[in-house]
Amino acid sequence: xxxxxxxxxxxxxKSTVASMxxxxxxxIVDADVIARVALKKGSxxxxxxxxxxxxxxxxxxxxxxxxxxxxxxxxxxSKRQLLSRLLAPYISSGIYSEILKLWLKxxxxxxxxxxxxxxxxxxxxxxxxxxxxxxxxxxxxxxxxRDNSTEEDAGNxxxxxxxxxxxxxxxxxxxxxxxxxxxLQERFSDVLSQVKKPLTWTEFWLSRDGSLSALLxxxxxxxxxxxxx
Length: 229
Ligand SMILES: CC(C)(COP(=O)(O)OP(=O)(O)OC[C@H]1O[C@@H](n2cnc3c(N)ncnc32)[C@H](O)[C@@H]1O)[C@@H](O)C(=O)NCCC(=O)NCCS
Ligand SMILES: Nc1ncnc2c1ncn2[C@@H]1O[C@H](COP(=O)(O)OP(=O)(O)OP(=O)(O)O)[C@@H](O)[C@H]1O
Fold this sequence. Notes:
The protein is an alpha/beta fold. Helices cover 58% and strands 10% of the residues. It is globular and about 75 Å long. The mean pLDDT is 95. Pfam families: CoaE (PF01121).
């Protein structure tokens, strides 16, 4: 199975690109969605985070106030590291379990949409790595518009992340998303054909069908050897 890594900066357009993959029947493992589940009221992750950050981060109904927690962690690196450390085991196991489900369904290509792909070292497992890049002004403008946030809040979120130029330098494929959605769609068509190239041998043996063929081969081999002796 081929696991494509999809990453970029906040509001650079990862989800927009992910939905293009999805429209082409390539399933997505979305780390932001998994991270939300990990912080759901009553979950083990929720309990650890509330114990560490205190009840002030909760809304009246007991759910985490994401805006409030976001303000705290995106303006303080040590608190951000603490939150990441507390949630990392739950996010990782959520990602593994999604990958396993898709492997069992026999998908040949899947996309891991992980904002912290490099920081959390998921890049070792993904090939190719696609980075959605955008220039800093466009990123700030789109983020403020999407989240209806102030320049200060949006700037804090951007500077809390690894630089987008550094991510770009570590990419196999860069998608420049500074232009229009139509420009993005055109660039995406090239990327799709690269991602859909036939599987390498290693990827084939790591696919469900390849692994089952290998297992069957081993069983037949063992039976044949036993019959001979
Ligand atoms: C702080 C939280 C509650 C803010 O929630 P909010 O709904 O406002 O933002 P959302 O979850 O949609 O994240 C938006 C973007 O912020 C960026 N981001 C999120 N967490 C982090 C982090 N720890 N470090 C750097 N950037 C981050 C990502 O680009 C993400 O796509 C939330 O982001 C969170 O729980 N973060 C910790 C979990 C995590 O590490 N998520 C990243 C998945 S790899
Ligand atoms: N080429 C484009 N032209 C105009 N708007 C765009 C373009 N690409 C994305 N957007 C808009 O920019 C915003 C950010 O895009 P998107 O949500 O896909 O980013 P993201 O990288 O997934 O963000 P996050 O890291 O927060 O999950 C969205 O409102 C989206 O509709």
